[in-house]
Amino acid sequence: SGPAQAEMYAGLQELGVANGEDLKETLTNCTEPLKAIEQFQTENGVLLPSLQYALPFLDLHGTPRLEFHQSVFDELREKLLERVSAIALEGKVEERYKKLEDLLEKSFSLVKMPSIQPVVMCVMKHLPKVPEKKLKLVMADKDLYKACAVEVKRQIWQDNQALFGDEVSPLLKQYILEKENILFSNDISFLQNFFSPSPKTRRQGEVVQKLTQMIGKNVKLYDMVLQFLRTLFLRTRNVHYCTLRAELLMSLHDLEISEICTVDPCHKFTWCLDACIREKFVDNKRARELQGFLDGVKKGQEQVLGDLSMILCDPFAINTLALSTIRHLQDLVGQDTLPRESPDLLLLLRMLSLGQGAWDMIDSQVFKEPKMEAELITRFLPLLMSFVVDDHTFTVDQKLPSEEKGPIPYPSTIPEAFTKFLQENRIACEIGLYYILHITKQRNKNAFLRLLPALVETFSDLAFSDIFLHLLTGNLTLLGDEFALEEFCTSLFDGFFLTACSRKENVHRHVLRLLLHLHHKVAPAKLESLQKALEPTKQSGEAVKELYNQLTEKLELRKPSPAEVTETPSMELPLPTVPTPASR
């Protein structure tokens, strides 16, 4: 156990304290070993006169000296750790840190001695600025680096972006994975979906908490994390990084870390938006506040728009803005007001367009608000309102006594302009998709089937994005009974889902999720053809194969077993005649 032994006594010699090696040497070179041991004990034992008589007493009780020394040592170490923590809080600032620096100087050579290491680490933890030389030694030694407190690591990280990146990177991967797992979860419900958890609940997540702890009050580290998030968002276009950007800031806000919150120019905007996300609605008072922040961006500070756009690109923000937009449009129908006459609606569109333009803005580094297309307000939104009116008209018509001309059919054609807007205008597409989610949630099958064909081709395939499909599959459970109808299934599966399944693995997954949930509602013949159409190919990923196998298993369980099939004829045999009372 040479190396382990050396580790145990590491650094003692430099302090002039005898260690195991010295004892070995003494015993090797002496004539009377017992005397030499006694002398070594006297020289290196606990120097307390009263102990001279107490130790033989312990010997009589069979307590080994090692046990005694160990317990004294542990006791002293505890006292020392308490004292270090106390020094860190008492007296004048310079004096207390001077004491701790002196203590570090004396004890650092023992940092590798497992029994003393906690004390050295404790001293460093309480020093706001550990000497550079010591930090370098800690950084160079894997075990020491691992053992030191996060307060010390922060000092190392702030000048070593690459090392900090190595620590943060697995957390960011974990975060994205967690988000994707929720979107692809097998539990499908219109009640519980991706957007159900409140912002406060989300911030309690493991990754956000760990990052918050790693950053502490260190602005430099906070900036580094934001830089990582921006870079990854640019590289992957993954909007979950935008969510983390907002969650991290609000987590520091919850802890009242003013050192960071006051220097992040997005703090108050994010705080206000966070309250809207909690309510899933932007009310008039908060709308004014948010508008104030946007209008208040001064000349020369436009770069803040890049950060604001990232905060608005968070899917939770987009969801809130889009839901509020749909609600406003319905209100406008009731008030006979046009979209262009509603300042609240125009503000929602302004924020949606800033959020949707985040990637382009950060990529081009051109910090100005995207121009709003007039047609969006003068043509597209009135179109959506006309759909709402169609629904009202149809409902009223149904209630009127029918004349000879028979019931009025539901309008089945879609205005060409609607389809064109969904293909060419990002904001129109986002609002259009949310309108379709809205009618599905209302169980409005007619409106759903009318607008569904417009989803096959949308702006950058937004209708096949995970968030939309996650919400759509959840809302479709409300139309469960319609799945028994051939016409409904053909429109939904053949007309929409299957058009993208072969080129988009995620769509394949979402259809399988939906069928796992609703297979018992689908007409058997349709189910069979769907099972064929959805069979995984060689290129399919593990997730698709796994879902397909689960579906196949469920369908196998539903089929009547061969035994049941062969026994059925026996039921058709004539029943034994039982004499009726009359024939007696």
Automatic annotation (TrEMBL):
A family per Pfam: COBRA1
Record GO biological process: negative regulation of transcription elongation by RNA polymerase II
Cellular compartments per GO CC: NELF complex
Domain of life: Eukaryota
InterPro entries assigned: COBRA1
Region (Disordered): 558-584
Endpoints of the signal sequence: none
Name this protein carries in UniProt: NELFB factor
Name of the encoding gene: Nelfb
